[in-house]
Amino acid sequence: MSTPPVNLNIDPRALGKVAVLMGGSSAERPVSLMSGSGVLAALQSVGVNAQAFDPAERPLHALKDEGFDRAFVALHGRGGEDGSLQGALELLGVPYTGSGVMASAIAMDKTTTKRLWSTADIPTPAYLSLSREALTRERVRTIPDELGLPVVVKPPHEGSSIGITKAKGYSQMQDAVTLALGYDDELLFEQCIEGPELTCAVLGEGANAVALPVIEIRAEDGNYDFANKYETDTTQYLFGSLPAALEAEVQRLVLQAYRLLGCRGWGRADIMLRQSDQRPFLLEMNTSPGMTSHSLVPKAAQQVGIDYPHLCLWLLAQARLDRKA
User: Fold this and answer.
1) H, E, C per residue of 269-280
2) Does residue 286 have a known ligand-binding role?
3) Within a domain: 208
């Protein structure tokens, strides 16, 4: 594997006054507060003048008014990961971590991401996208006939497994739809790929982007839901469980998917490995991955010798705007 493009010789004082954006008003606010608290402590531990900033409690223009030089985006979900925050920071002229406006907006919409990947022959599970108006009881009953069972029902603009159901039978479909419609007006119905769940993080941009080691996730009862992500310690995260050639193929696909979306800074793809033929299928790209104690990007970075504080420091040093000042 290539050496990650991480220069750890960064002068923290040169990064100026830093806002760690956390909290926000999305359904992922609790996770964002955990991520942001971890990032804030890590940056302060290496000498960065970093302060917490919650956009749900303070107006964004305070970033400019109070002289912040850059922002570390530790927000998840809508209003933080979907391009709207990135656009506001562009207008304010405050450089920020992670992907820009367009890549953030596309990646936050799982349906649009899948459409784009499909045009480039990047494998992703078969799917249907249906609006609230189209989801009559009669239409919902036909979806398993088209995709097979189980069917994964998702609100395509949420993360952290919020609002997702793996419907194993026709009788579960309507409840799954009702739950997901509580979060979105358009739903994504996805063919369920049976097999191990994988994730792969990327650091960098364009041709210089590098994939970190692949992680196999083994959750209790095979259900990597919100509780198993953030509230328990029973989930196993395995490195080196794949044959070398298969791991390299997963990394190649993830890099292709990351570059196609125009991501920068960092990201993390979620993948299902079909048990029957060991073929990987990409589910989504996270452009503001979690940074909690349970989070996967820090685990992968540790495998290549990058500790948590220096990962945060490097990401902060990459902060920039889409446009030139």
Assistant:
1) EEEEEECCCCEE
2) yes
3) yes
HSE-up (13 A, CA, CB side) for residue 269 = 34
Round to whole Å and give the CA distance between 203 and 315: 9
State whether 224 and 246 are in the same domain.
Answer: yes
Amino acid at 239: F
Q: What is the DSSP string of 277-322?
A: TTEEEEEEEESS---STT-HHHHHHHHTT--HHHHHHHHHHT-B-S
Is residue 187 domain-shared with residue 203, that is, in the same domain? no
Same domain, 111 and 207: yes
Six token digits for residue 288? 């503001």
Catalytic residue annotation: 28, 160, 295
CATH number at residue 17: 3.40.50.20
Q: Which of 164-173, 216-225, 231-240 has the lowest mean pLDDT?
A: 216-225
Stated pTM of the model: 0.92
Mean pLDDT taken over the chain: 93
In a domain, 44, yes or no: yes
**36-79 pLDDT, tens digit each:** 999 999 999 999 999 999 999 999 999 999 999 999 999 998 89
Q: Is 228 annotated as a binding residue?
A: no
DSSP H helical ranges for 190-243: 226-230
131: containing domain: 127-191
First to last CA, the chain: 35
